Amino acid sequence: MKYLNEYRNLEATNRWLNLIHKTITRNWNIMEVCGGQTHSLVRNGILELLPEKVRMIHGPGCPVCVTPLNLIDKAVELLENNVIVCSFGDMVRVPGSKKSLMQAKANGGDLRILYSPLEAVDVARENPQKQVVFFAVGFETTAPANALSVLQAKEKGLKNYSLLVSHVLVPPAMEAILKDELCKVNAFLGAGHVCTIMGLGEYYPLSAKYKIPIIITGFEPVDLVQGIYMAVNQLEKGIFEVENQYARVVKKEGNLAAKNLINIVFRVGSRQWRGIGEIPDSGYVLQDEFNEFDAELKFGIRHIQVPENKTCIAGEILKGIKKPYECNQFGKNCSPVNPLGAPMVSSEGACAAYYHFTNTV
Amino acid sequence: MNNRAENKTINLSHGSGGLMMRKLLNDVIFKAFDNKYLNRKHDGALVKLTGEIAVSTDSFVISPIFFKGGDIGELAVNGTVNDIAMCGAIPRFLSLSFIVEEGLGLESLIRIVNSVKTAAKNSGVRIITGDTKVVEKGKGDKIFINTTGIGEVHPKANISSEKIKPGDKIIVSGCIAQHGMAIMSQRKGMEFEADIKSDTTNLNFLVKDILDAFGSKIHLLRDPTRGGLAAVLHEIAEDTQTGITIYENKLPLEKQVAAACEILGIDPIFVANEGIFVAIVDSDITDDLVELMIQKEKGKNTVCIGEISQDHPGKVVMHSSIGGKRIVSPPIGEQLPRIC
Ligand code: SF4
């Protein structure tokens, strides 16, 4: 914990905050890509400590928020058809088009909330007469463990284990945001833990092509204010580079063993993002040789497609075009108790973060 | 031939009202709680109490039923004892009802009954009436326990949220989030071995001590069980329409618990406790009260975490360690771990 305390320290935070205040002369929009960073900004009260000229925009980096409605419907469909569905906790309250996984569980579905896909493999082993599906949601960070679960299931010869894959990748999402003509982002704080796995390689071309600073940043208050300072510093100087604020954890080349695992089981493919739509090459799909572990193929549920809820402007929120309070459902028909869209469901979602935060007086 | 095996697990005939049931009650339950009230074996209990009476009931449905630092039996006693204590009362009597799922090992039941017995003894309450039902397999989760407690209100106590006023201090009697994290660390699939123990314990003697000493200067007592500290503070702020300010760096938190919360992405102020209470007290007794409480084993980690303010009525605001402020929102559902 000592290690953590260093990054939650009032003096160090103030040092970087002062530098930001001293350096900044113009208005800048900085997007933190990752929901964990949004959460930390809000939870530690950092947003109000920043000068007004810094406008933080909350990016699409919350895996719960970007999982499309129809994948939740697919998971619900499985639950209602006697399949044991395993999921991480924060997915279970997200509304599908008709119900959430939690509601399907209340109706008798066998939903297991787990911490790791490897436990789902155990569930499959312990329940040979049942089919077991792990809802594989997440960014690059969760992919290695999901890949490992498939390899384990294969090694053990399990025929009753599969993945409902909803893996998305961060750099293509950043590019989709930059390509949007309404994009207001001047600099990115890159998600530290994604880079822990993937390294920095993908960010250099992105930064050069769009002439935009990208600072790979951690999650503690000091990480964030330092990252913001590094972004402001580049912007004020008119330079655009990839900088690594999180060097204590992130290596340039990433984690080779984890990347290798991912590459054995997954390949890059096109994926749908909730509110954003389909982005080519923006996620992982199973390699053909692992088709038997693809729940969509196995249970013939690929066809389930539902349109997104029109009143929810999650897409604009996730792209940073609008702030949550600019949504006319915000705080009225949509609140954490009764969420209309995913950004309100996940505690890391921008709408939920703002709901709690701006509620203050 | 299966007689021995049958005797080792609870089955439906243990709830039938017949011989098997009588045997279970006599061998296990009455034997454990032997006291003059229960021994009369009436349908109900006859007791004498004086003055204002506090009554509270609670049902315990926890999984796993045995956990580090305690079990469901101990919890069922301490939980209700503490609820009575939070009314400013001295708990005297408890009722005890078991709903047992067919298939529960007799050994487990005996173990639970014994911890009920010990917990009742430790907190000075008598089990005076009760009930046992057996439900079919699949219709329960091993065992559910309901307890109802009765206590006599402390003569000096005057616990009422109406007495809360700006300037009052908020005291917490021990480290937060222990129970919830102990349970979570033992649910299937936890990623790391953490030696976190539930803090389940009785608080009635500690409460009596502070009531003896400070009486009506103690304005409110609450035990932050489900929903944790955040839920309790929220309720108080909302019910009284006062503002609550707390300081992140004052929150008492054990290192291991902090680390476990960190790893799972769980905020400790939302996590359940079973062995601490929150007191809202007149500011002029704060130092003496904390001084008194830290002398006692169960209050040794007592701290003042904040105060009642005139600003932001109805809201709880936390000052973060790095100098920011944030609203503490009410918990919505069970805390669930984050994905990444
Ligand atoms: S406030 Fe609710 S409806 Fe509006 S964008 Fe956010 S989640 Fe969607």
UniProtKB/TrEMBL annotation, chain A:
InterPro entries: Hyd_form_HypD, HypD_1, HypD_2_sf. GO terms for molecular function: 4 iron, 4 sulfur cluster binding; carbon monoxide binding; iron ion binding. GO terms for biological process: protein maturation. Gene3D superfamilies: 6.10.20.100, HypD, alpha/beta domain 2. Keywords: Iron, Metal-binding. It holds the Pfam family HypD. It comes from the Bacteria. PANTHER family: HYDROGENASE MATURATION FACTOR HYPD (PTHR30149:SF0), HYDROGENASE PROTEIN ASSEMBLY PROTEIN HYPD (PTHR30149). Belongs to the HypD family. This is Hydrogenase formation protein HypD. It comes from Abyssalbus ytuae. The lineage of its organism: Bacteria, Pseudomonadati, Bacteroidota, Flavobacteriia, Flavobacteriales.
TrEMBL record, chain B:
Residues 42-153 form the PurM-like N-terminal domain. InterPro entries: HypE (IPR011854), PurM-like_C_dom (IPR010918), PurM-like_C_sf (IPR036676), PurM-like_N (IPR016188), PurM-like_N_sf (IPR036921). SUPFAM superfamilies: PurM C-terminal domain-like (SSF56042), PurM N-terminal domain-like (SSF55326). Residues 165-317 form the PurM-like C-terminal domain. Pfam families: AIRS (PF00586), AIRS_C (PF02769). GO terms for biological process: protein maturation. Belongs to the HypE family. This is Hydrogenase expression/formation protein HypE. It comes from Abyssalbus ytuae.
